[in-house]
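Hey, sorry to bother you again with one of my protein questions. There's a protein on my desk that I can't quite get my head around. No rush at all, and the record is pasted right below.
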Amino acid sequence: MSLPPQPLSPLDGRYSAAVTGLGEYLSEAGLNRARVHVELEWLLYLTDHELFGSHRLTEQQIRELRSLGSSFGQAEIDELAGLEATTRHDVKAVEYLVRRHLADLGLTEIAELTHFAATSEDINNLSYALTIRQAVTEVWMPGFRQVIAELRRQSLAYRADAMLARTHGQPATPTTMGKELAVFVYRLERIAKQLDTSEYLGKFSGATGTFAAHLAADDTQNWPLISEQFVTSLGLTWNPLTTQIESHDWQAELYSRIAHANRILHNLCTDMWTYISLGYFTQIPVAGATGSSTMPHKINPIRFENAEANLELSNALLDSLGQTLVTSRLQRDLTDSTTQRNVGVALGHSLLALNNIVGGLGQVSLNREVLAADLDDNWEILGEAIQTVVRAEITAGRSSITDPYALLKELTRGKRIGQTELTAFVSALDIGEAAKQRLLRLTPATYTGLAGSLVDYLNV
């Protein structure tokens, strides 16, 4: 027995609620709405400049004409599907939809200016630029900034909470949880600033980027200037030198930055997973949730694990997009056409990961008792402080020790020593009394340097 039609992608099924905002722009319907918008704005540009004997439309006619884009909905989606079934060409279907709208408004005298001197890619490249920009700035970036904001909040809250660092997975010079989270905030904010300055390019220069049809129709016009004015009127950056397609370099740059953000977030997830495993963070039980089907005690860090997997899927697609889109055989091939239809999938997996990270961060609580016990169990990490102080004392002429590093290596390497052993060792050192007292006052919990205050650099 066959199932009724089902969504093939989990983004359209199990996880649809988390990524629905992207569908507003990066779905086929969102792309077609943008195509309608570009076609209408080009038509309005031509009539506003009274090209080819056309006349400026009234304010009411402009509003009515633009209403096809602003009210684009299921009726238009269905009509386009019917048109494309006949045309077998998506942009041509959009042109026919616009022409029908013109007829309904009694504007058939300007119908031939629909899609005038435009190749399909003139419409497509501008439509993709508009929809990708909206998807990134209005949907993905808010989710990204939500992660940064929560990390910043926790960084400030935990700035003074000392914890044992683990370089190479081994006990190392202590830090604070707040400072470690601040590292991620700083890294992610750099990417956010880069994304804020991203360019979204567009071209509008005909079949091979030469304005040939434009000049054939009217060689008295400054068509490059007209093209630039039209592209920039849409809020995009004009690309004057293209083939039939806009070269997609801006997309490769954008996807590289988002992929970089994904990789930093992946690092955050693996660190949070490890902190939970070490007991540094306690997971807050969710009422009614099941951690394991057979082990009722478990609360699994599934939010971070889910995010890891989706970040990896997102980057697989983003990397592929960046590699594929920058190459087009000679003046045009269609590899970009099917490739670009997956931009929403790539961003969808990343957005789903952002949603999980925010959820995961909101379901953990710092376990200060475990942090303190871990520090107290690793007094040997003060060996760095001791040998550094001894070196300073030798330089100042207050010690006759010849190899402080070897001395501390012999005491601490591969060994677990406690406060008693370390206190006795320091008390017997050949160093000045002031330095000795500084070392005797030191504990693993206080040996955090400027970790807490370094968090303030987030506000610089």
